[in-house]
Amino acid sequence: MAENSGDQMKINQVALFTPTLSEIKNVITPALATNFEEIAVDLVDCPDLTKVPFQLASEGLGGHPKLFDIGGPPFLLPSVQRDKLYDVQTILKQINYNNKAFVIGAGAGPWPQVSRNCEMMMNVVIDSDEIKNQTKLAWVGDDNQCVLQNCKESDTRLALLANLFVSEGKPGKVIKVYVKTRTGNLDFITTIQNALSARYRGQLVGMGGTFLIKQGKVKQHVMPDFSPVPLNSEKSLNDWLHFYNMSAPLVAVGTLVSAESNLDLRVQHFHSFSDHGEGGHYHIDVTPDTVEYLGYFNIADCLYRIDQPPKSVLFGKD
């Protein structure tokens, strides 16, 4: 729950429409083919994601898959609400998710841990109060460089906003997506999200998982420390953010949904991390001729909208 309140936070539970993996494959394949030169979309048994190159905290994406959409940009913009801190363990208890929980995704990191604003790439297993925490945090250093560090093992908090995929981390069938050489204008995730949005009008579909940027470079941002002045426009937001071209290999984690709905959902949100000190919020590749992606995704059956802000903002949602 938000640490500024002793009450349980408001959580809206929404059942998601769950087409088969085969149907999703048929929906996204033509869209990917219009945006990338080489594509292969298959239904496969999920590989062991704990191994290189993904190095996640659990093997698979199966077992009661859910989405968490927590907070939102209004808690950051135009001025930060520092008291908006959430603990994933607390949320899991509030929704009575009593199974092993493998939680991956993108959000703002627990700023008290590093004494500054930071990006979070959540990658943690919580099982009967035992924690395997491989979450990464990225922040902007004194020389404006990206700093990537491991999260403290015991800290399962986040701040302000997050989009998380929660499962039991079990092996099982997933959608494998491989693409190479971008020929269109859309990034990898937007291509998939747009296809879902066009196909499932009036039905809310949600997915989560991980993808690897195998080759090339991608544009990513890292939030610097909280702005001392309000960020009142898209220009002020972009001037505040720090953008970098980061090099493969990068492992991204996050979620996407087919529509914002009346819950003011974030339709896509992925953060990536690496073994070479780079990580941040994924935007798009900047080397379309050489870029190569490999992703594994699963369909969620339920979404929890957690501590929805009372109003939205007109910028900063992508």
UniProtKB/TrEMBL annotation:
Cellular component terms per the entry's GO annotation: nucleus
Classification via InterPro entries: C11orf54_DUF1907
Matches recorded under Pfam families: DUF1907
Annotated localization: Nucleus
Keywords: Hydrolase, Metal-binding, Nucleus, Zinc
Domain DUF1907: 27-306
Primary location group: nucleus
GO MF term list: hydrolase activity, acting on ester bonds; zinc ion binding
Record text on subunit structure and interactions: Monomer.
Designated name of the protein: DUF1907 domain-containing protein
Organism per entry: Cotesia glomerata
Lineage: Eukaryota, Metazoa, Ecdysozoa, Arthropoda, Hexapoda
